[in-house]
From TrEMBL:
Reactions it catalyzes: [protein]-peptidylproline (omega=180) = [protein]-peptidylproline (omega=0)
Region (Disordered) location: 1-50
GO molecular function: peptidyl-prolyl cis-trans isomerase activity
UniProt entry tagged with the keyword Ubl conjugation: no
Cited Pfam families: Rotamase (PF00639)
Enzyme Commission (EC) number: 5.2.1.8
Name by which UniProt lists this protein: peptidylprolyl isomerase
UniProt xrefs under InterPro entries: PPIase_dom_sf, PPIase_PpiC, PPIase_PpiC_CS, PrsA_foldase
Gene source species: Stutzerimonas kunmingensis
UniProt KW keywords: Isomerase, Rotamase
Protein family membership: Belongs to the PpiC/parvulin rotamase family.
Length: 319
């Protein structure tokens, strides 16, 4: 049974643990609009195109959407649906259709400009064309040194090295959904803590007798642990502990842990030179997201879009 301790003392020392730009759509706004059509002319249009303009499902009909006169096929919407999980089918259909409308607008603009592109490694022709379009039409000023320095000065609390702990533990394992077993395990944990308060030198002995973690072979030693190496509920409690025996057992999904912190190495302020590159990349990414979002909104505003209320610029391009 895993304990989520994240120990780093080798194969037997620890079990191991397991912002997109957008515009809000009003809650009462209709997601789709009904396209006007003449009943007499629709069959002829269906016969000419070889596929119906509207396909019904058991829950609702697919939206009829056109972008500058180009129809978004219902089959394409159905295929896109898998990439847009949502709380309701209507919302998922809306998100999928919106993404396809934006994709069509980008493709139409690429065609208007007659862009000739060369795909990079791992890039499709469509992705290369979209990248080239954005590079050509969206001015994206890069963050300068002054902007990076200012961001660092205003957010220094973000730039610390990760703290480290050297700790030992005894895991009293019990199922997360067994209240009675949990209660008994906690009582046992408190009894063992009492024994350790009286005789701390017995920790390795008690670990070997009672711990369900493989680290018991090393006296419960987990080695050095940094954040992210263990399950969140255990980590939150562990990194708040001072050096010494914790006077209460720590609960996790795996059971109760008796913990001794042998050493704490606090995080240190990272100098600007160490984090300058990541700051510059973050600021440039923010500028890119804002610029591309505005560009997409401009495309939407200049287009003739029928059948859907476009109030966002959410698309895989922004991810």
């Amino acid at each position: 049974m895993g304990c989520g301790c994240g120990g780093s003392t080798g194969g037997s020392g620890g079990c191991g643990g397991g912002a997109r730009p957008e515009i809000e759509v009003p809650a009462d706004a209709p997601l789709f609009e009904e396209l006007p059509h003449e009943e007499d002319s629709e069959p002829a249009a269906e016969q000419a195109s070889g596929e119906p303009l509207l396909i019904a499902s058991s829950e609702q009909e697919w939206p009829r959407v056109r972008v500058n006169g180009v129809a978004i096929a219902s089959q394409v919407i159905a295929q896109e649906l898998q990439y847009h999980p949502a709380e309701s089918r209507e919302e998922a259909v809306y998100l999928a259709t919106q993404a396809l409308v934006l994709r069509e607008l980008l493709q139409q603009r690429i065609g208007e400009l007659g862009l000739v592109v060369r795909a990079e490694a791992g890039e499709s022709e469509e992705e290369a064309a979209t990248r080239t379009l954005i590079e050509q039409e969206v001015p994206l000023p890069l963050a300068d040194e002054a902007a990076c320095q200012q961001y660092y000065s205003g957010n220094q609390q973000r730039f610390f090295s990760a703290p480290l702990l050297a700790a030992r533990h005894i895991l009293l394992a019990c199922p997360a959904d067994d209240a009675e077993a949990r209660s008994l395990a906690r009582e046992q944990a408190l009894q063992l803590i009492g024994q350790l308060q009286a005789a701390p030198q017995r920790f390795a002995e008690l670990a070997l007798q009672h711990s369900a973690c493989p680290s018991k072979a090393q006296g419960g030693a987990l080695g050095q642990i940094s954040k992210g190496q263990t399950v969140p509920e255990f980590e939150r409690q562990l990194f708040r502990l001072p050096v010494g025996l914790c006077q209460q057992p720590l609960e996790s999904r795996y059971g109760y842990h008796l913990v001794v912190v042998d050493q704490r190495i606090e995080g240190e302020q990272l100098p600007y030179e160490v984090v300058a590159g990541s700051i510059r990349a973050e600021l440039n990414q923010r500028v890119w997201q804002i610029g591309v979002s505005q560009y997409l909104q401009n495309l939407v505003g200049a287009a003739n879009i029928e059948g859907i209320l476009m109030q966002g610029a959410e698309t895989p391009l922004m991810q």
